[in-house]
Specification:
With 453 residues, this protein is an alpha+beta fold. It has helices at 2-21, 66-69, 88-106, 134-141, 202-214, 251-265, 280-309, 311-333, 340-369, 374-404, 416-447; strands at residues 27-33, 36-42, 50-51, 54-55, 63-64, 71-78, 112-118, 121-129, 147-155, 166-176, 180-186, 195-200, 221-224, 227-230, 242-245, 270-278, 337-338. The strands form six sheets. A four-stranded antiparallel beta sheet has the order 7-8-6-16. The protein has a four-stranded antiparallel beta sheet with strand order 10-9-13-14. It has a three-stranded antiparallel beta sheet with strand order 11-12-15. Forms a complex with SecF. Part of the essential Sec protein translocation apparatus which comprises SecA, SecYEG and auxiliary proteins SecDF. Other proteins may also be involved.
């Protein structure tokens, strides 16, 4: 009994906490008491945490997908005819990295760039929510990456000729990405720390040797699309065509720099296969219609559960409300990108949560009809209904994993819309198992004393 009380207190705690986290906005209260006006603001909390490369939104806003927020989706085809087969995936990843960088510089928030391989076609799907100049964005992301090496330009202060010259700019040289063979992460350094190795072609070996000889002890900038990627200082003259960029890199930083360099070393022409524009008004209308349909369906379910199962049904509705709070909080914290298929997956998971309650309640009625007391019937109903609930949900989880395709297998689905549906469905099922077996069971133990009472 004491353990059940602890679980009940925990349920109350998370219900209050998650209700607070799901406040719609900063709430302002103002009221006059005995002629004096009292006002205060209850701010919605800001939560800022990061797990690896997985940050949360400090404002705890729902992250809307392209079909709800509006914007543009572009499918690009990467022309790999001039790229060796062994380097095509590396080249595709480099193109994806360059396009992501361009999108960030353009100022588009919440953009996504995904790669896929369909029938030997290397494709990229770029989603740009909230874009208002589609042609300008298309011209930006459709360009082939341009890599060049630039030499430093120094300027002497006329007022102080003896002072050290000041670095004022970098001037592009004749050494370009066409002269670079490849870049890769390496640990072959004195301190065994992550670094980036460069291998030049025969056409670039002599050019690079001249640069390192002329600018020994000075920085040489590496430019991608006219922006500085890195400006390493030349430590010695390099005549072999093999160089290493060292620094206090993390593994992720070294990988990122190598990917960016490969984008210029393996230039891939980009073609636009398709373009789809979605207006924000259409997205709002679709969201409102989906929420209306879901609200009507949920209301019908609540009325049915309360009328058919009475007090047990009402307690199960409380469990569904807690399920909704937990789900909404997880959507905000991860955050989950909400799309119309994703909302459909959530509504389907609600239906499965209700189905689990119905299996338990019908089993409870059967146990009561056999003459068992209320406490015994309640515990037996949960235990004996668990096998059916487990099998049904396990089959759906397996289907959801196949649709979500977490390992990116090319023979399975790679569509973002289908994955959004699968993700919300999987999360909903896992959360519904917790609320059905733990939350609803605990509430029934404390607040339902049998039909006769």
């Amino acid at each position: 009994m004491r353990q059940s009380q602890s679980v009940l207190y925990f349920i109350i705690f998370i219900s209050v906490l998650f209700s607070y986290l799901n406040l719609p906005s900063d709430l302002k209260f103002s009221r006059k008491v005995m002629g004096k006006e009292f006002s205060f603001t209850l701010p919605r909390p800001r939560v800022n945490f990061k797990i690896g490369n997985w940050p949360s939104d400090p404002e705890l806003n729902f992250k809307k997908g392209l079909d709800l927020q509006g914007g543009m989706q572009v499918t690009l085809l990467a022309n790999m005819d001039r790229i060796d087969k062994g380097q095509r995936q590396t080249a595709l990843d480099s193109v994806s990295s360059v396009i992501s960088r361009r999108v960030d510089l353009y100022g588009v928030s919440e953009a996504s760039v995904k790669t896929s391989l369909i029938n030997d076609q290397y494709r990229l799907v770029v989603e740009l929510p909230g874009i208002d100049k589609p042609q300008e964005a298309l011209s930006l992301i459709g360009q082939t990456a341009s890599l060049s090496f630039a030499t430093p330009l120094y300027q002497t202060n006329p007022a102080s000729p003896s002072a050290e010259p000041t670095l004022v700019d970098f001037i592009p040289s004749d050494l370009t990405g066409n002269d670079l063979s490849s870049a890769a992460v390496t640990f072959e350094t004195d301190d065994r720390q992550p670094a980036v190795s460069l291998k030049f072609k025969d056409s670039g070996r002599d050019k690079f040797a001249k640069l390192t000889k002329a600018f020994l002890g000075k920085p040489i900038a590496i430019l991608l699309d006219q922006s500085i990627l890195s400006a390493p200082t030349v430590q010695s003259e390099i005549t072999t065509g093999d160089a290493i960029i060292t620094g206090k890199f993390t593994i992720d930083e070294a990988k990122f720099l190598a990917t960016q360099l490969n984008a210029g070393a393996l230039p891939v022409p980009i073609e636009i296969l398709s373009q789809k524009n979605i207006s924000a008004t259409l997205g709002d209308a679709s969201l409102n219609q989906s929420l209306m349909a879901g609200g009507i369906g949920l209301a019908i379910v609540i009325v049915f559960m309360c009328l058919y199962y009475g007090w047990m049904g009402f307690i199960s509705v409380l469990g569904l409300l807690i399920y909704g709070l937990i789900t909404a909080t997880i959507y905000r914290l991860i955050p989950v990108t909400l799309t119309l298929p994703g909302i459909a997956g959530f509504i389907l998971s609600v239906g499965m949560a209700v189905d689990s309650n119905i299996l338990i309640f019908e089993r409870y009625r059967e146990e009561v009809r056999t003459g068992r007391s209320h406490p015994v019937a309640l515990e037996l109903s949960f235990g004996r209904a668990w096998n059916s609930i487990k099998d049904a949900n396990l089959a759906t989880v397996i289907t959801g994993l196949i649709l979500f395709n977490p390992l990116d297998w090319s023979f399975l689905n790679t569509s973002g819309a289908v994955r959004g549906f699968a993700l919300t469905l999987l999360l909903g099922i896992l959360i519904s198992l917790f609320t059905g077996i733990v939350v609803t069971r605990t509430l029934l133990r404390f607040f339902y004393k049998g039909a006769k009472q």
